Each structure stands twice: as C-alpha cells, then as structure tokens.
Amino acid sequence: MSQNKNNVNERTKDLHVCGLTCLGPLTFHPGAVGKKITLSHGNCRASRDLETFRDGLVFSSRPVKPEEKVRIQVERSLLAWEGGVRIGFTNESPTTGPLPRLAIPDLTEKPGYWALPVPQRYCPPGTMVSFWMDKNGVMWYRTSTRSVEFCKQTDLDPSLPLWAIIDVYGQSTTVLLLGSERNLNRIIKTSSCPIPDSTFKCGYEDTPPELKKRKAIAEIKLEQHQEDQSNNNNSQKIGCRQENFLECSVCLDREACLAPRCGHRCLCLPCADRVFQEFGTCPLCRQKI
C-alpha cells in the first residue's frame, strides 16, 4: 500500500485512507502553543491553566484554504473569568518561539494577523464554533448557540497561506479541534482526517482555592477604588446607562463604565476585577492603578 496514496491516521483506532475528498490531518500546531497550554488527544485538545485567563494561544498545524471551515468545540469553562474564546487567521507561519499572551491586542496589532472575540454568552461548554475565510478576505464565524453568521472584512491576503488562530481565553479553558470541511460544489464536500472519539465531559471547572483568594483580594481593592471615584466630585466613573456606548477594552463585549486613576474609561465591572488582579495597570496606557 503506497504511503502517498493511503494515509493511516495514527490518532484513530480505525484505518483511515485519505482519498480525493480528504483534506489531510488537521491538529493544533505542537510547536507553537501558549505557555499555559497543554495539548492532548493527538494534539486536538488544548487546555489552559485555570489560574489565568491568558497565555492560551494555539494555531492550526497546517495552512487552511479559503472557504475551509475550521470547527472547534468549547469543552470546559471557568466562571471565575470573563470573556470567551477568540478566533482568527494569520498569513504568518506559526513560530516555535515565545508567544504573546493574548490574541487581542498582542497579535492583532501586528500586520498579517486578524482575530475576533466570540462573546461568552455564545460559547458556553458544549458549544461548537465554525470559522472560515472567504476568497475576498472576509472572515466568518457561526456558533451552535446562535442561528446567524457573523462576518467582518479583514486585511489578510487569502491568496497566501492562512493558519487558523485560537485563543483559549477567559472563561473558555479547554477547546477541542474537531477538524475542518470545505464544499467544492453543491454536491462534493471535503473534510480533514477524522479525530479520535472523545468521551470528555463538557461542563464548568471548579475554581481553584488559590484563585478564589486572589479574586477576593482584587474585589476588595476594586470596591475601594469605586468608592474613591464616587466620593470625588470630578469622578471618572460614568454610568453604564449613558447613551454613548464605549466598549470594554478587555472583553470587547460589555460597556466600559469604569475608569482607572489615569482617566481612561475602558473597563466594565467584571473585567475591572480581572485587571486589578492580574495586571495592576490600565489596559490602554499601562499606568499603574
């Protein structure tokens, strides 16, 4: 049996023969993972350390084609954090060196990278997310929890190689790469090699005791900061119900209604707790809080 024509997928128990409708294997890139990520299940499962919401970057093991839909499943989440998984593409080959901590903004500030946040309300445990790039450079995604597709024009070149980006971020702590599929026409559909069956139970993680302690301390500091602002006649806090909506610079989902001492109104209340705990600086100007 020729190795070029027939490929045994060693990640499955069954013999898999790659044919004309097979796109080949697709896993997470084993050499380009965030420092808090552990790969398992044949490099198809990415799990992030529960003690942090960041350092969860992973990439596809190979470039994907325009219109090739990458499919993932959010398996586990942790309510102690805020925000959902981030997804995107890059024209840059994944590096084996140290990776940035976040897809947004660390990667997206660089040319050749594009990523979008999936709101946490659309990606609870068990949610399947499909995302792809069309031939015009428009990125699309759809989740199993919403009936509509979301799209946005990117500045990436779809004629160049495209690697998928997944940031196992915020509440999302474990993600399974289900593979990919691409329609050649109305009749013929191609797909990547199958992944091994999984009996992993989707659900929510228990908050580690040390994290509970850190969050309690951060919440006390946040309450003190809010009290200082409310007692100031020139308070930098602006009510969440004002008409001019400013997006939180951390979760990119809720309204920013809190400003650190520097004056930048850039945080929603849940993310302010996280910033006080993890960073201690304004996410915009990096001034100490």
Give a brief rundown of this model.
By secondary structure, the protein is an alpha+beta fold. The chain contains three helices and 14 strands.
CATH topology of the largest domain: Jelly Rolls
- Give the uncertain stretches in residue-range form: 1-13, 233-243
User: Tell me, what's the shape?
Assistant: globular
**Straight-line distance between termini:** 65 Å
State the order of secondary-structure elements, H for helix, E for strand.
Answer: EEEEEEHEEEEEEEEHH
By CATH, the superfamily of the largest domain comes out as: SPRY domain
Q: Can you tell me the CATH architecture of the largest domain?
A: Sandwich
Number of helices: 3
Helix content: 10-25%
Oligomer: single chain
Mean pLDDT: 84
For the sheet with most strands, the description reads: 9 strands, mixed
Per DSSP, what share of the residues sits in E-state strands of 2 or more residues?
25-35%
Give the number of DSSP strands: 14
Count of structural domains: 2
CATH class of the largest domain: Mainly Beta
Which class best fits the helix and strand makeup? alpha+beta
- Rg measurement, Å: 21 Å
Report on the structure:
By secondary structure, the protein is α+β, with helices and mostly antiparallel strands. The protein folds into 2 domains: 28-202, Jelly Rolls (Sandwich); 209-278, no CATH class. It has 3 helices and 14 strands. It has helices at residues 103-107, 209-230, 269-278, and strands spanning 28-33, 37-40, 45-48, 57-60, 69-77, 86-90, 113-117, 128-133, 138-143, 150-153, 163-167, 172-183, 189-191, 203-204. Strands 2, 3, 5, 8, 9, 10, 12, 13 and 14 form a 9-stranded mixed β-sheet that branches. A 5-stranded antiparallel β-sheet has the order 1-4-11-6-7. The termini are far apart. Mean pLDDT is 84; it is low at 1-13 and 233-243.
